[in-house]
Design goal:
6-stranded mixed sheet; transport; alpha/beta; 6 strands; 180 residues; membrane; protein transport; Ras-related protein Rab7; binds guanosine-5'-diphosphate; binds magnesium ion
């Protein structure tokens, strides 16, 4: 049997408190969703192995433990990140307005060598709420923001209904591999 190459990718989740970062990670890794508001999973990161083009890729997904309220995540959180997943809630204007800050903060703290080409992705989460009637940020507005940031890719997700999460993480992992 051919030896497969192993790769580790560090992915950090960023966005306002309450947008669903922990829920997205929990749904992606454990196939679970909880309405109960939990600010932390009690670990710095969780891992998941996926196979991409015959390569075993370990995704190491870093979630915040509630410190995002104070925008003080510390260097260890950002250090060596291969990808950054920005998350907002399509029903909350403020969470969309905060994206500039999170994006800038990441570039400042992680200081990647080629900031214009770094693998970012944007997730518009909670599209299930009220069957989309409570939505305040349109798909168009989100995509315009993405274009203004060197063409970040955009996915609309629901951690509750498990919509688009696998696709989004697979996409960002592939982007990071071609970016190496
Ligand atoms: P975090 O602070 O960004 O980690 O957000 P959480 O994952 O803790 O989620 C905050 C709240 O939103 C919790 O009550 C979740 O159950 C809820 N939530 C998260 N994602 C979704 C979603 O896609 N749809 C709905 N309806 N609720 C969600
Ligand atoms: Mg959380």
């Amino acid at each position: 049997m051919a030896t497969r190459r192993r790769t580790l990718l560090k992915i950090v989740l960023l966005g306002d408190s309450g947008v669903g970062k922990t829920s997205l990670m929990n749904q992606y890794i454990n196939n679970k969703f909880s309405q109960l508001y939990k600010t932390t999973i009690g670990a710095d990161f969780l891992t998941k192995e996926i196979v991409i083009d015959d390569r075993i890729v370990t995704l190491q997904i870093w979630d915040t433990a509630g410190q995002e309220r104070f925008q003080s995540l510390g260097v260890a959180f950002y250090r060596g990140a291969d990808c950054c997943v920005l998350v907002y809630d399509v029903n909350v204007n403020k969470s969309f307005d905060s994206l500039d800050n999170w994006h800038d903060d990441f570039l400042k703290q992680a200081s990647p060598s080629d900031p214009d080409n770094f693998p970012f992705i944007l997730l518009g989460n909670k599209i299930d709420v009220d069957s989309g009637n409570s939505r305040v940020i349109s798909d168009k507005k989100a995509k315009e923001w993405c274009q203004s940031k060197d063409d970040i890719s955009y996915f609309e997700t629901s951690a509750k209904e498990d919509i688009n999460i696998d696709a989004a993480f697979l996409f960002i992992a592939k982007r990071a591999l071609t970016h190496e």
